[in-house]
Write a structure and sequence with these properties.
heterodimer; A: Rossmann fold; 6-stranded mixed beta sheet; 4-stranded antiparallel beta sheet; 10 helices; B: alpha/beta; Rossmann fold
């Protein structure tokens, strides 16, 4: 059994006055893939923000342990040091996280250096190649607005993987892509996670992606994890009525 | 499932855009037909020309060449407002398609007013003729005058508040929501409201452009059921554009697969999903992330 990397214990969190997360508990071992599935407004993204300590999400109870250290209890400086280098994020909308008019090389260099590491062109070219971008040198010299949505999404993945984080958070990383690109990106992410032993905490409303990638799955509804278990088990024999409804709503090829 | 009568058709449609660096051809010799009461799916990746096709059909853009037919009459080059009496676009971003400051009831009344103006019998045709005449003297090539020969849309739009309420119930919403503004609705509710608005406009054809991509699976399933019910009960014909082949397969009677402005394959849903002949269709099927 691999060592636990992230442990979330009875987590309660709120936005201002409004409680959003209620009694969330789950573990992710090193290199494990955990997928949280739920509808809009169920609190999925808030959970990621709580782990990242972003956006005024207030942890009101319970704990988030990264390698046994409490993230909410950590001084801000120390927490920030972990972000990027140890805990990476692939945002839903990569176009919003890059400056559209600056060349990618400068932006990637800035990101890497802000994490206290030296930028190496070779590593960047390799990272871009690993996510299936052909001609990485040319991509590094382009500006985000010149590239398609799919390419920008791959670049966001490459940028998050560059510092070789041990835990990667993905917020609907493929929902903005069309099927062919989404399928390719999902497969790349999966094989990268396996080859580098990177743990993934994924948030999605797409049960197909959860099935293809994750070891374990958590179904989230109104801020609660109503069902967790191995992906196979939950999808084949859902215990909760809500999970059955989610499964029934997915279009199938008949 | 649809009847034999062709309600909408396109023949050899072409469209070209020129940008600084290159020439884009989103439509290359596209032929299509939509039968009454049928749901036709159009599938393809981003940039395949799906949305351009819908915009050309709705007369929001002009094709470079080719013909558009409505009930067997040519309406190529008509105005968007003329096409709007028969067909309405539903967009991916429902919120953006409503005026954020207007209450729903006012948006729907506006659509209804346009419908009564459009379907008021002789007056309408006279008005259409006058409008067309004005345009011709301005040197624009408008074929709105064909309206005189066209049969009226058979659906009754949102002519008064009681009919609007009826339509809103039909799309599965509570009439209380009519007194809210777009942002006070959920994504799914707002999308149903935009379908209700199209029905208030008297449309008998819905042009749906990725209308469920921004919705959850459960909400998506509700909207899909709504479209099926509208087709069955109201004989609404639907063009359904999406990049999700599984969704299109479960909803549509026939499917057109588009790639780089070309229709690479067309056939019944069963055939496209079961025995695709084109390599690209196979790739689309293979890329699906299914349960």
């Amino acid at each position: 059994m691999a060592k636990e990397l992230l442990k979330i214990r009875n987590l309660y969190a709120s936005y201002g006055e409004e409680p959003v997360l209620l009694d969330i508990s789950f573990d992710i071992p090193e290199g494990g893939i955990f997928c949280i599935v739920g509808e809009s407004g169920s609190g999925k993204s808030t959970l990621l923000k709580a782990v990242l300590g972003l956006d005024r999400v207030l942890v009101t109870g319970g704990d988030i342990l990264y390698e046994g250290r409490s993230l909410p209890g950590m001084p801000d400086r120390e927490h920030r040091k972990l972000l990027g280098r140890e805990i990476g994020l692939i945002p839903q909308n990569p176009a919003g996280s890059f400056n559209p008019t600056r060349r990618l090389r400068a932006q990637i260099r800035e990101t890497v250096e802000s994490q206290g590491m030296a930028y190496s062109e070779k590593a960047a070219v390799e990272a871009f190649g690993a996510v299936g971008l052909t001609n990485p040198e040319k991509v590094l010299s382009s500006r985000p607005y010149e590239l398609s949505g799919g390419m920008n999404q791959r670049i966001a993945i490459a940028a998050a993987l560059l510092p070789e984080p041990r835990l990667l958070l993905c917020d609907e990383a493929t929902s903005a892509l069309d099927v062919v690109t989404a399928g390719a990106v999902v497969d790349e992410l999966f094989s990268l996670s396996r080859s580098r032993n990177t743990a993934l905490l994924m948030v999605t409303h797409h049960l197909g992606i959860a099935k293809r990638m994750s070891d374990r799955i958590g179904i989230m509804k109104d801020g609660q994890l109503i069902e967790t278990g191995s992906t196979e088990e939950v999808l084949a024999r859902p215990r909760e009525e809500y999970t059955r409804r989610l499964l029934a709503a997915v279009p199938r090829l008949s | 499932m649809g009847s034999e009568e062709i309600i909408l058709g396109g023949i050899q449609l072409n469209k070209t855009y020129k940008t600084k660096e290159r020439i884009v051809r989103p439509l290359q010799n596209i032929d299509f037909c939509l039968h009454e009461g049928e749901i036709l799916g159009i599938v393809g990746e981003s940039g395949s020309g799906k949305s351009t096709l819908l915009r050309v059909i709705a007369c929001l853009e002009k094709a470079d060449s080719g013909k558009l037919l409505l009930h067997g009459r040519e309406y190529t080059g008509s105005s968007p407002s003329f096409a709007g009496r028969y067909m309405q676009m539903i967009f991916q971003d429902a919120y953006a398609s409503f005026d954020p400051r207007m209450k729903m009831i006012d948006s729907l009344r506006e659509a209804g007013r346009r419908n009564t103006r459009g379907a008021a019998g002789k007056n309408c045709d006279a008005a259409a003729l006058r409008e067309a005449g004005r345009r011709n003297t301005r040197g624009e090539n408008s074929k709105d005058c064909d309206a005189a020969a066209l049969r009226k849309p058979h659906r009754r739009g949102g002519t008064d508040d009681s009919r609007i309420t009826e339509i809103v119930r039909e799309v599965g919403l509570s009439e209380d929501l009519l007194w809210r503004r777009p942002r006070e609705l959920s994504g799914g509710q707002c999308q149903r409201m935009s379908i209700a608005r199209a029905l208030c406009g008297g449309a008998e054809i819905l042009l749906c452009d990725e209308i469920t991509s921004a919705l959850d699976v459960t909400t998506q399933a509700q909207v899909v059921q709504l479209l099926q019910r509208l087709r069955r009960k109201e004989k609404v014909s639907i063009l359904f554009v999406s990049h999700d082949l599984a969704l299109v397969g479960s909803l549509c009677d026939r499917i057109m697969v588009m790639k780089d402005g070309v229709c690479v394959e067309e056939g019944s849903s069963g055939k496209i999903l079961g025995q695709p002949e084109n390599e690209y269709t196979e790739l689309l099927l293979k890329s699906l992330i299914l349960l």
